[in-house]
Amino acid sequence: MQASKRFLAALTLTVLGGTAQAADEVVVYSSRIDELIKPVFDAYTAETGVKIKFITDKEAPLMQRIKAEGQNATADLLLTVDAGNLWQAEQMGILQPFTSLVIDANIPSQYRSSTHAWTGLSLRARTIAYSTDRVKPAELSTYEELAYKNWEGRLCLRTAKKVYNQSLTATLIETHGAEASEKILKGWVNNLSTDVFSDDIAVLEAINAGQCDVGIVNTYYYGRLHKQNPKLAVALFWPNQSDRGVHVNLSGIGLTKYAPHPDAAKALVEWMTGPEAQKIFAGINQEFPANPKVAPSEEVASWGQFKADTIPVEVAGRRQAEAIRMMDRAGWN
Amino acid sequence: MAHPAQRRWYPLVFAVAALVLLPLSVLLLSWQTIDQQIWSHLWETQMTRLLGNTLQLIVGVGIGVTLLGVSLAWLTSLCEFPGRRWLDWALMLPFAIPAYVLAFVFVGLLDFAGPVQSLMREWFGTGLRLPRVRSTGGVIIVLVLVFYPYVYLLARTAFLAQGKGLMEAARVLGQSPWQAFWRVALPMARPAIGAGVALALMETLADFGAVSVFNFDTFTTAIYKTWYGFFSLSSAAQLASLLLLAVMVVLYGERRARGASRPTNERPRVKALYHLRGIKAWAASGWCLLVFACAFVIPLLQLVVWFWQRGRFDLDERYTGLILHTLYLGGIAALVTVSVALLLAFANRLAPTRAIRSGVSLANVGYALPGSVLAVSIMLAFSYLDRELVIPLSNLLGGAGKPLLLGSLAALVLAYMVRFIAVAYGPLENSLARIRPSLPEAARSLGGSGPRLFFTVYLPLLVPGALSAALLVFVDVLKEMPATLLMRPFGWDTLAVRIFEMTSEGEWARASLPALTLVLVGLLPVIGLIRRSARQIG
Questions:
Q1: Region(s) of chain B under CATH 1.10.3720.10
Q2: Number of CB pairs < 8 Å for A and B?
Q3: What ipTM, to 2 d.p.?
Q4: Residue B147: partners with Cβ closer than 8 Å, 6 or more residues away
């Protein structure tokens, strides 16, 4: 009797077009790709029975979709890369701040939004990669020095359209001010050995092949390429160790304003900052866990310890537009 | 004055036009506020370079696809030379390769760090280099190799349909083959060539995937940058509406140039006109082979190599799902789009009033918009409909009051229809025009009417055109990326989605698995298309 009633209710819902939404379900919009998130979600489902549905796309369209859905939201969580994007999501008013003692205990405050709108999950350093054949580590010191004349025709960069470079530039502006930063950017552009590349892997391959001697890349791209080709004649260098430290960015998650399953979603986020999830989440992509109590994978640890820049990552978002305009002026395409 | 019988078509045509108009009006509404900071920045630092780049691209691709498409079509349809038989259809195969795939194969293969130049350095030392690969010339080459089949297909059909009478007459009048080509064949095929070039240029203007691999900045990349970087969707929509304006001008020009051309009704030719011999024959074979190798064989081989090195390790049981989703979406979209396009074509034929004609041409502009911009406009339009129409209505009827459109399969199929209806409309309009009005009139005088008339007279004659239309839409939907990404229901990942995920991470070698699968899945319909077009003519 009970069962048939439930069946009838479900049927009615289906017929009327309402997607029957069980409470034990969480919906995620993600700009991190399928293979980097599915193992984590599968682990959660295996542990708790909560189902996780997700779609992947670029950040901007996903945010627009959340905004368009408004109160009829489908998504509970927005998972994205780069603090700049998370900051934009917060500005668009599509996130819902919430405080959690678990998250506060797991993630250091510079890797969270100051308004509790989102939290970082994994960290990646955007650092200098150099040719082990043609560059001695002693020749390197800071990002800023890559603008010096002695690097002319030796530098490779990725396109300025990628948010990682925009965030790096934003922190430059925050540190040095607009005028000095623009000079640095112009120096970089002047030192380019070839047109900028469309991705970091191509930058690393160009250094390896001898097209240029140094470049700026995210650590996990190096990790991926190194795994494929252990003879890679490229190594990572940690710049600015005597001043502000290496530029660090993150991949993070926020609760949407009209999340249909807020409690289940919060529980998922809390779990994702915990040891088990952190290990998988950072491990798949050779990133650093945002939870400092969790050790990075062996390979990642082998790159060595470094001092990270402590500028709150939110700066990336606040100064993003300014950074893009500056990069345009400097001729960094 | 519209006849009452003609008015019967109004609701249908206007409903379809409204569906296209909805996303377009989203673009127009964006002009309510103008972000001066973004505009003056774009104007001062970017515009000259962007417009210059875009213009170079348009001119280069325009000339390239015309040269390739027309020369190949002329050779395979009018001449006889070694290999003509299979090159005739093989030259259509590049249609199955998406522009973004050819772009990353081209750059991956030929750039400094790629296998070709690495080998050159190994053999000949570091002095020897290829010209700059990621350059204006490189982008143009890739786009020409991907888009020439549009011109080839249409020009070939036109040359074949010219029949033997005309060219033989030219020959009897003492014209050399070359003169006959310039004075007779080319002018008569001009409308078809123009239509092909227009399609290729619309694709070029809307392309984002291929130019981003080269990091070549065009007007379209500026649209994306304004949205993804400055997060100003309204400024991006404003730029997109300007692009659309430019496209409409191009289309208008193409229609004007086409003039009142009529499909010829000559008896088709059975045998080739010119038997090439000696050096000429080998030159013809060589040219066709060169294009086929560059546009199809080499890219495919590189994909296979990458697949063997890296891609095959990703192959798992989920690929069955990806392939099925891709086929299913392509199939439904083709069916829906062709049906609607057919209705539009009929409306245009039976009731060519001014209102109907404008409605029909309005319904055809979706093709020229950059995919993501169209996708987001459709998404905004659907979420508007959900909010204003579906939810109140569902509440009124005692329903759950939930949004129905956004995130549903129906919405995605509608988005495909809006984008690709122009692709289906062309072939349908053509094959409908070939049915002389006397035929249905005769049938009518014999008492046939309504559905019976449609099924017994029109439909059999329309099948070839409808099939071509369906196959074109099918292949286009397979390759479509932005709308699929943004609007697919949960769990509906396709091959294009997987390619996007891999290339966005710079994993070109691993993208070989979904890319190769996509090309193979797309090849079947392309071969069907070729057989179709061969039989239709000869």
A1: 45-309, 310-538
A2: 145
A3: 0.86
A4: B61, B65, B99, B199, B200, B203, B204
